């Protein structure tokens, strides 16, 4: 569903991706891991067409990206942001924008409205549908953004740190939502700092460092404090506490 080969990209004149290879097969759940600034967000932004490649090739659903137009097949949840965009939109309105890739400029029909309600129910936000997005907590914003991505019933869901800043209860709701979509056949590519509540869902981990893939394989079970949601993997105490070194830090080359 995604084939990125030899991808290089620069931002602000600096090379950020230095030859990334990434393949995601149908039905897989692939986690992109790595330290801050290793290129995780840039990689998935390249996949969704937001960062141009300098060299390399990208195919989506077997089609070279320059010819790919079927964006309704992909749901994208950007790195933590709010669902509010300065306009007084309701939760339902924001999630409805997720149907634009299917409807274009035609008004939403009955099937579109049903899909929006379905997505809201999936993330447990149906009871807030008519509330302003400005009245939501951070975790609720994240649920709304995930519902927006789900509203087009995408075959491929791409998410940038969907659990960042989300409380444990909301993490569980989101993990259950993802589990349900994966069971229904959705393919998932997501950036994570910790596997946390999603650990059992991940088929394969791809670890980036300095814009290169440095490890790829089944994610080992994280144990100890690194496995806890919300643990910050950049931590000065690790060198004085060698027993607490987690797998992610080891792969990512963090101290
Ligand atoms: N718009 C930009 N202009 C210039 N440099 C950028 C821009 N966006 C990102 N970078 C740089 O590119 C590198 C990779 O950033 P990226 O956001 O892909 O990392 P990341 O692995 O997702 O990190 P994090 O875990 O902190 O989110 C970083 O060094 C960052 O400073």
From TrEMBL:
GO-annotated molecular function: ATP binding; ATP hydrolysis activity
Organism (species): Wenjunlia vitaminophila (Streptomyces vitaminophilus)
ABC transporter domain mapped to chain residues: 2-235
Pfam family, one: ABC_tran
Taxonomic classification: Bacteria, Bacillati, Actinomycetota, Actinomycetes, Kitasatosporales
Keywords, ordered alphabetically: ATP-binding, Nucleotide-binding, Transport
Cross-referenced CDD domains: ABC_Metallic_Cations
Entry-linked PANTHER family: METAL TRANSPORT SYSTEM ATP-BINDING PROTEIN TM_0124-RELATED
Name of this protein: ABC transporter
């Amino acid at each position: 569903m995604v084939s990125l080969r030899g991808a290089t990209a620069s931002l602000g004149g600096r090379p950020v991706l230095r030859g990334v290879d990434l393949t995601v097969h149908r039905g897989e759940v692939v986690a992109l891991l790595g330290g801050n600034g290793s290129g995780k967000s840039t990689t998935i932004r390249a996949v969704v067409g937001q960062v141009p490649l300098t060299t390399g090739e990208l195919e989506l659903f077997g089609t070279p990206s320059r010819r790919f137009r079927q964006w309704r097949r992909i749901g994208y949840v950007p790195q933590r942001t709010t669902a509010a965009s300065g306009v007084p939109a309701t939760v339902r309105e924001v999630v409805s924008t997720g149907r634009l890739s299917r409807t274009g400029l035609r008004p939403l029909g009955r099937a579109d409205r049903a899909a929006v309600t379905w997505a809201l129910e999936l993330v447990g936000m149906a009871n807030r549908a008519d509330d302003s997005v400005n009245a939501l907590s951070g975790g609720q914003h994240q649920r709304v953004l995930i519902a927006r991505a789900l509203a087009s019933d995408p075959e491929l869901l791409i998410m940038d740190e969907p659990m960042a800043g989300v409380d444990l209860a909301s993490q569980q709701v989101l993990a259950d939502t993802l589990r349900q979509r994966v069971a229904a056949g959705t393919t998932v590519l997501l950036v994570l700092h910790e596997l946390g509540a999603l650990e059992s869902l991940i088929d394969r981990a791809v670890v980036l460092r300095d814009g290169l893939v440095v490890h790829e394989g089944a994610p080992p079970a994280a144990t100890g404090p690194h496995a806890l949601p919300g643990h910050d993997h950049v931590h000065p105490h690790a060198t004085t506490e060698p027993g607490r070194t987690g797998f992610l830090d080891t792969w990512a080359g963090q101290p």
